[in-house]
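Q: Start with the shorter request: fold the first protein.
A: Done. Sequence, then structure:
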Amino acid sequence: MNSTYALLLSKYIEKSKLSLGEISLKLAAKNIKVDRSYISKLKNGNKPPASEEITKAIAEITGGDVNKLIVAGQMERLKPVLEELGQEGFEEFLNSIIGYMVSRDHFVQEMNERHKTKCLAEGIPFTPLHGDEIRKQFQNASMDDKIILSQYFTYTLDKTNNTFTVHPFVKSDADDIEGNYSDAEDEKYKRVYEELGFDEDPPKEDELNALKIALRAYRMGKDQRDSDSKKK
């Protein structure tokens, strides 16, 4: 066990005096289905850091520092970027995530709605913020906040040119934990796969995961479109 995430998690669990079975039950009470063997693998460093939802819940249950554990988990995922780009390049990478985020029109709109509410509450004139102003505010945020924000994006590294490209991260439920999907749920995706006309060969696991991600992306887009239409 050599990851900061695993060391912190092990420390929080030990300090809480809770058994892994008890933690699993408390997670179930939060509608998070994680068995004791998965928690054991996390704390022994035999599994990559869990999702933010699971990490946050375990930290809360054990009385650990939520923010510290989330940052440790994300830093472990970002090791390839830090090792490839160095400290200066890594900070540029985090700022590029912010730049990508605030360039989305819906994000700027949401930030201005929050800004307007705050101005009204404080009795000061409201002046809409532009993307550049919002980007500057976020770039001045703490390193920990930037690292937490980075979990909502993925990236590709060009090792030849020592550059990276940032993309929004669409998370598949299949990425959460082992056994998160039941056989019945996987069968549902297999049926969708077959109905799309790809039934000559049984779908491979990566193809099923790609379909889950595509469906999640569609739902996220649909939710955003529905939300936008209600505002009009």
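Q: Next, the second protein, separately.
A: Sequence, then structure:
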Amino acid sequence: MRKLFTAFALLVLLAACNGKSNKNATPAAASGIDYSQVAIPAFNADSAYQFVADQVAFGFRTPNTVAQSRCADYLASQMRRWCDTVIVQDFPATLWDGTTVRGKNIIASIEAPAASGTGKRLLLAAHWDSRLWADHDEDKDNHRKPIPGANDGASGVGVLMEMARIISVQRPSVSIDFIFFDVEDQGCPEWADTYVEDSWCKGSQYWSRNPHMPYYTAVYGVLLDMVGTQQPRYTKEEISRQFAGNVMNKMWTAAAALGYDKVFENRDTDPILDDHYYVNRLANIPMIDIVQNSHGISFFKHWHTVNDDLDHIDKNTLRITAEVVLKTIYGDYGTK
């Protein structure tokens, strides 16, 4: 099953850390901050939804396709409207079956006001590709068909695009880098009946080994994945807790203060193999994963099916997710 670690894999993960911590000191959970009173720019859920719809309208954003190229151009063009710099990082990737493809990581930066003087950076990320195979669909005839990827991919990117738009106007005292990772969702399909190590998250693997600027670092990172479902539920996923527990606690505290504790559930859950794993392990940046975790099923009902479409995107969920991240950022780094 995609992205789910076994207990054994987690032990291997932790052993590989060799007792070393991230080179960036993870901020302690904020104390004494009334997040309900932290001023943030107004998040427009309609705008975020439109950004999701725009991506889906290109068709299946799978590697080596016209839709991939056109959507990458769209993402870069939109981010140039609000960001100080935009880089398209082209990279090679080999899929689980040996197929060679090209990926495009979209990297956009909003610099803090010069007067802020912090010199610090935050990293916000999501993946923008859609999966080649609907291998979790109830209809086996669909297992080799691509998915629309409205929630699994486009939702996180749509939220970050709207965040970039509003942050560019009301800048916090910290620089923010947005990365849209490509070729995240092309790991081994279930019908292949095989396992190929590191077949997922090709874009984050490449960027973590080849950052867009020398010696890049960030205080912490936040990954958004599948953040548009109509029944949102985010839990404290194990890799996030191990590498960036204080960041996660801080964000969950902000969610509770905003009355979103039923969405950001204070529950520890199993590790998930996602882009944050490689950012933590390879780039040594403490990053948490805000990812849908439905009760009793795999992520959400339409995960890796042909029904992961716009009919199942909830604007309110996009807004709730963004507000918690924004409250945390502006709580830490208010405007100067």
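Q: Describe the second briefly.
A: Confidence is low (pLDDT under 50) at residues 14-30. Helices lie at 7-16, 45-57, 66-80, 150-167, 202-209, 238-257, 275-281, 315-332.
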